Amino acid sequence: MGYSKGGKTMRGGGSFSMDELQMLRDLPAVANVSKDRITYSNAFKQVCVIRYLAGESPTKIFREAGLPPELIGYKRIERSVARWKAAVLKSVSGSSNMSNGEIITELVNLYVHAVTRKEKLDDIAGIANPDKANIGNAPHPLDGANVSGGVYIR
Hints:
Blueprint: E1 2-5, E2 8-11, H1 18-25, E3 30-33, E4 38-40, H2 42-53, H3 58-64, H4 69-72, H5 74-91, H6 100-125
Antiparallel strand pairs: 1-2, 3-4
Helix pairs in contact: 2-5, 2-6
């Protein structure tokens, strides 16, 4: 099954063409891509799992990140999200007794802590970061969010 991107027809599964490789390289969600493998950015994986646990469809999350399932492949998306979710649940202490909302809150707190720590290390090292998140003054990402719902499973 193909889809059209910039007048070119592309398809999911298998190896990526040179045009597809370039399109994928330009996405913030992609850390690295080769002819037959995609490595996603850690930030994308973390946000993906949080949104998934909040009830969003993996396909929707990938599509909104510029990763069309027709190109990436539905099975590749499902396997990636399942693998990331399993890894995240192992990293959250006591997650087997927690609701999805509690797990999401813990993940967001871990993510905020990691970003804040990276910014402090960058400051110490004298690395200028014009895109600094300034998370300490930002509203909590879950303010007003309904995270008590179940996990969307296909």
